[in-house]
UniProtKB/TrEMBL annotation:
Source organism phylogeny: Bacteria, Pseudomonadati, Bacteroidota, Flavobacteriia, Flavobacteriales
Gene source species: Winogradskyella arenosi
GO MF annotation, one: pentosyltransferase activity
Protein name per UniProt: 4-amino-4-deoxy-L-arabinose transferase-like glycosyltransferase
Residues passing through the membrane, by range: 12-32, 86-104, 116-133, 139-156, 163-179, 185-202, 209-229, 258-280, 292-311, 317-337, 349-373, 379-400, 412-430
Topology of the protein relative to the lipid bilayer: Multi-pass membrane protein
GO biological process, one term: lipopolysaccharide biosynthetic process
Keyword Transferase on entry: yes
Subcellular localization, as worded in the UniProt entry: Cell membrane
PANTHER family in the cross-refs: MANNOSYLTRANSFERASE YKCB-RELATED (PTHR33908), UNDECAPRENYL PHOSPHATE-ALPHA-4-AMINO-4-DEOXY-L-ARABINOSE ARABINOSYL TRANSFERASE (PTHR33908:SF3)
Cellular-component GO terms for this entry: plasma membrane
Domain of life, source organism: Bacteria
């Protein structure tokens, strides 16, 4: 099986993502960032707002539209109500990151099997997976930028600018900018260039570098056309949004400089190998390609330093750091695959046994989760739980068996099997833990009575409803609908604004709509109360 996987590396990486998440990822509730993207995509289709993008009818210029265009395309084909279909583009870009890392590793002159390992490490890193849902724009901008960097590596390495690679570089840079502005240029492109210059030294004459700079400027300009158009078409709104977004960089979510220093933890199951891979004095004599290792290490550390310089900090901003970190981890994994049978010192063997032994234990005792699922385990659900428990029990047993025989390559691929099984077989169980008061707004979508809001309504609620929810509160004051009967959604019971409506309407409380799927992480903004108003 491993030989077949290594024989078709690109196909293996793609099928791994599709199998792991492509049929079950809709079990996870829609996040706030994701909902904003989905709403904008829906309004592209319903209102034809393809350039001057909107969310719930209001201007939404905070993010460029390329990811939303792609999402709208899938929504047109499969329906905007299908969360699974709307998440597929992000999954394909997740796969593209693994594939791009494979090609970049090959360009670094690493063996095919080693390059494939790097790709798989990226695809199973916690936050690279998580970013596909938490912030769907990020996976696009960094995915496109990584494609551009693969082309740039060859342009640096050869000291020439062939037409096809130059065009691809320009197109991918433009697509990255059109996905989330200059973010990836700062956190992925800039540290890549600095690390390359230190590790490999730049090749080529002055004319070559002038060409590269011209290609970069052309790509950025090409990707900036949307900003220029919106700045011209709706200058007042654009400037207001731009000022608000810019002020967030130094006044919102401000964290200390060292906030990102535990970045390696975001790699999830690869935390221990990630930490060891950063120990240059230890690994420098154990890698097969020292220059390539220096490059990935420098790329990782410089990216963390550049991120640390920005006052505004969030965990999800670390996602692009995990891209070079995956390559860095790959050097350590490749080393233990090659040499583990020859190691005897406990300080070298213990981290390996701990890393994979912990995964093996989780697999062996996954069935214990059944005690918390309790009444949900009936019928088909029980059969699915028995299946996943048996599969993970087998994987756990084989992990310990291969560890005993010091066959780390087999252990590594069993770890991938563990991740694939969790995604394909266990992820659907997330839908079983719904709290009893969960009530979606989608139940109202076929009702002909108009729905308005008083105050803010969460993006998740607007997406779940399936249509725009106009607000009665405007800059001019309270808007009085012309309909004789309509519904009002509000985040508070008996809001003050109803005092202005009491003389005109009979107000009747109908129900509370709670989109909190689990009671473990209850968010007040996902609870809305619905009233029926009838003109007196």
């Amino acid at each position: 099986m491993i030989k077949q996987i290594e024989k078709y590396p690109v196909l293996s990486l793609l099928l791994f993502v599709i199998t792991m998440l492509g049929f079950t990822i809709d079990a996870i509730p829609v996040s706030i960032m994701e909902a904003r993207n989905f709403i904008s995509a829906r309004e592209m289709l319903t209102d034809n707002h393809w350039i001057l993008t909107t969310m719930n009818g209001d201007a939404r210029y905070e993010k460029p539209p390329l990811p939303t265009w792609i999402t709208a395309g899938f929504g047109y084909l499969f329906g905007m109500g299908s969360v699974l279909a709307l998440r597929w583009p992000a999954l394909l870009f997740l796969a593209s990151i693994g594939i791009s890392i494979y090609y970049l590793s090959k360009a670094l002159e690493l063996p095919k099997a080693h390059s494939l390992i790097n790709g798989f490490i990226a695809l199973t890193s916690f936050y690279i997976i998580g970013i596909t849902i938490e912030a769907t724009w990020d996976i696009y901008t960094h995915g496109f930028m990584l494609m551009a960097l693969v082309q740039l590596f060859f342009l640096f390495k050869k000291g020439k600018t062939p037409l096809i690679r130059s065009l691809l570089f320009v197109v991918f840079i433009a697509a990255s900018v059109l996905s989330k502005g200059p973010v990836s240029l700062y956190v992925l492109f800039l540290p890549f260039v600095i690390a390359y210059g230190i590790a490999f030294k730049f090749k080529g004459n002055l004319l070559h570098f002038l060409k590269l700079i011209s290609l970069l400027v052309f790509g950025i300009t090409l990707g900036s056309w949307w900003y220029l158009y919106v700045r011209t078409a709706d200058p007042a709104t654009f400037m207001a949004i731009a000022e608000r977004e810019t002020s967030n960089w130094h006044s919102y979510n401000v964290r200390p400089f060292y906030y990102y220093w535990s970045f390696f933890v975001q790699s999830g199951i690869w935390t221990v190998p990630a930490l060891i891979s950063l120990c240059y004095p230890y690994l420098k004599t154990r890698v097969t390609n020292l220059k390539a290792y220096r490059f990935s290490l420098l790329w990782t550390l410089i990216a963390v330093i550049l991120l640390s310089l920005i006052p505004e900090k969030k965990s999800r901003y670390l996602m692009p750091v995990l891209i070079p970190l995956a390559i860095n981890i790959g050097f350590y994994v490749n080393y233990i695959i090659r040499e583990f049978k020859n190691l005897s010192a406990k300080k070298e063997t213990f981290p390996v046994y701990f890393q994979f032994g912990l995964i093996g234990l989780i697999a062996l005792f996954f069935w214990c989760i059944g005690f918390s699922l309790g009444p949900f385990l009936t019928g088909v659900v029980l059969l699915r739980f028995i299946l996943i428990s048996a599969v993970l029990l087998l994987i756990g047993f084989l992990i310990f068996k291969t560890l005993k025989h010091k066959n780390i390559k087999a252990t590594f691929y069993l770890t991938l099997s563990f991740m694939l099984s969790i995604g394909f077989l266990a992820l659907p169980f997330a839908q079983l833990q719904g709290q009893p008061s969960y009530l979606p707004l989608s139940q109202l979508s076929n009702d002909t009575i108009p729905l308005y809001s008083l105050g803010s309504v969460s993006p998740e609620a607007i997406y779940n409803y399936g249509e725009k929810i106009p607000s009665l509160k405007t800059e001019e004051g309270l808007m009085i609908p012309s309909e004789k009967t309509f519904r009002v959604l509000t985040s508070s019971l008996n809001p003050e604004a109803f005092k202005e409506l009491n003389s005109l309407f009979t107000i009747e409380f109908k129900d509370s709509y709670d989109l909190n799927f689990s009671s473990n992480n209850h968010r007040a903004r996902l609870v809305n109360h619905m009233y029926l108003l009838t003109r007196k």
